[in-house]
Structure formats: C-alpha cells, structure tokens
Amino acid sequence: KFHDGSDFTAEDVVASIERYKTTVQAGKKLDALTGMEILGDYEVKFKLNSPIGLLPALAFPQRPVMMPKEVAERNMTTELKGADVIGTGPYKLVEWVPDVHIKLERFDGYALDERYEDASGLGGKRIGYFKTIFMLPVPEAEARMAGLETGEFDYAESIPATSYDRITGNSDLQASIVIPRWSVALEFNHKSFPTSDVNFRKALAYALDMEKVLTAITSGNKDFYRLDPSIYTPEQFFYTEAGSADIYNKPDPAKVAELLKAANYKGEKVTYLCNKDFDFMYKACLSNAEQWQAAGINVELEFSDWASQISKAQSMEGWNINQTGLSPRLDPTQINSSLSSSAAGAYGYNSPDMDALLAEIALGGTNEDRKVIWEKIQAKIWDDVAVLKIGDIFELAALNKKYDGFRSFFVARFWNVVEK
What we know:
Elements: H1 10-23, E1 33-40, E2 43-48, H2 54-57, H3 69-74, E3 91-97, E4 101-106, E5 119-120, E6 123-124, E7 132-135, H4 141-150, E8 155-159, H5 164-168, E9 173-188, H6 198-206, H7 210-218, E10 225-226, H8 253-262, E11 270-274, H9 279-294, E12 299-303, H10 306-315, E13 321-326, H11 336-339, H12 352-361, H13 367-384, E14 387-400, E15 403-404, E16 418-419
Helix pairs in contact: 6-8, 7-9, 12-13
C-alpha cells in the first residue's frame, strides 16, 4: 500500500520511472530504456535498446522513487512537495514545517518483508517500533550536543569529532561513528586556465600533504580520518588504489615547480569556491589554500553558502577549484555525473577514453569483470586528475543509551530500533 491507502501497482511503477527519466538528472542512466510493458497488476517488462547494468541504475542512492501514478503525472517536471510526498515504507510523512520539524508516523499498512532476517541498506526486514518520529533541524553543533545531554533529543548527527570524549564519558549516551561517510575531494573547471591544464592540476596534487588537510578537519583525531586515494572506500567492493601510487600524498616542491613551468603558469589568480555550511569543507579550504600559496600558487578563496557555491560552479564562470565532499556511491554507474563528458557535474572534463570506459562498465556483467574496468577508470582519473581525492573523514553521531538496535549508515535509519 501507498501511504494514502491506495495499492502500489505496475501503473505506478511506469509513471514513476517516466517521471524519473524526465525530471531527474540521474534519469539519463535509463536512456536505453525505450519502453515499459505492463504484464499484470504487479509485473512490468522493461524494454532496452542496448545492454545496461539495470539493477544498479535502479538502486540507491540515485534511484527512481516510487509514487502513485497521479502524483507522478502532476509532478512530471516539478519537485515533490507537501502532501505529494507519498511512499510505501514503515513511516509516512504527516507534517513538514520548513526550518521547524518533519513529523513521521508509523504506517500501519506497511507490508513487512519477511524474506529477510534483518534490514540491509534501505531494504530488508524493517520494523517500525516507534509511533512517531520528529526530525528537527538544529544548525549549531553545540545545541545538538546540549539537547542530547538534557534528553531533549534522542539522536543527533554531524557532531564535531572534538565531542567524542564528551559523549563516551556520558553514561546516558552512546557514540556512533559513520564509516564510510565523506570523501574530501576537489572538482576543477576544466575549461578555465590554469585548471584546464593537466600539468597545473597535477601541481595542485603534488603541493598537498593530504594528512595535514585531514588532521585540520578532525583536530588530529585518527579515529575520524584515513588517507585513502580510492574513489570507493575499503568497505566497498570496488575499492582500488589503481593509478595513485606516484601522486597521492606525495608532496614534492621541486615537482610542483616543474609542473607549473610546464603549464606556463605565471601567477594568475586561481579562484577556489568554498563554504562554511559544511565544517569539513571550510577547514579543508583553509588547509589546502595555505599549502598551495606556500607552493607559489595564487589561490583566492571565495566563500558563499552551499547552494550559491553549487550554482556558481554549474555556471562554469569565474572559478577554477570547487571544494566538495563525495558521499558513498554503491556502483560505478553512479559516478558518471562527475566524469562523463555529457554530465554537468564533470565541469568541462572531456575524455573519449573515459567515456568509452564508462560506457563499457554500464553494460553490466559480473562484478569481477566490472572491477577490472573500474580499475582502468580510476587510473584514468589520477592520470588526468579529473577530480582530486584528499581522503576519507568519518562522521560522529550519538544516541541515547535507552535505545537498542541502531546501526550507523550514511543515511540515518530508525527502523528496527527499540527502547530497552
């Protein structure tokens, strides 16, 4: 059942996927889907004009969410809002007051998946034990901590690593470290000099002591960072260090000078887009800029809010480096938005060889065969410095000890959590 009480049927699947293809940038992954045939109330046949890795294309995080046909059709080119946010999960949205709270209530019509013993990712056996969940936006980290300590909040996320001892020393709280969570990374304007030159991009890499950046972000707490050159983290199947051995975390002033000369760089201003909305990005910007300036690179920090920063980056005007963080992606097809020459998020990066590899890995096949292709893709990323990976940082969350069953994930999940 949908949260409005209607049956979830094949017609809803077709309409939801049509909306996804029409409205969402990631919907381009389904360009090979040329038709959908309804075979019965609960069965849909997909017609493809070429082979693709279909299951990853439908999977979290960039997935087509299912909604009632009527909702999909009236929001074919618009964002879902208010009463149109209708799903099928254990909890339903009953109230959303911007900047105040989101109220969820247990959905009594939820069909529990008994095939599984436990939940996995966003699927599996998901039991909603709580009648109501309130999600509150609390921008200040200290306010989140204070709410935990007084019992006003049962859970809080994005807590600074410096509060770890404060949490573990409180008999009422339990710490939860979210691993993996963020990869600190840099994106480049590949159409604007000097970042249009691969020699300059390599100079940026050789100018950085990556661990210095990560310790600046985490106040030096090794429980909350690791050096890692891989786009995929060690917890994931596609983890590889391919292509990184000679460039990742290899600060070399002489190499930097050689590469800057090869790029014909003469001290031109390099605009670095930053924000203070994400503390880790802010601290990364300061550390990176300090090291680059010491290497003779004329970097100028430009701060704005996150939304404005992304808007400027997408304009492709007036910038060279964009500070960002990569949230976990579970399949190589979900990286296309940063590497494909046709993707807005690639910021002008254009490599026929990379496009060919991305097309090859999108065809599907065994995971083992696809990992061989992915290793070539990552080696190409480092060879071109298409993006620059700094390392991994982990996020601290905390929960009241009266609850049991909570497991950290890069999206907070409260099903299967019970009060002791």
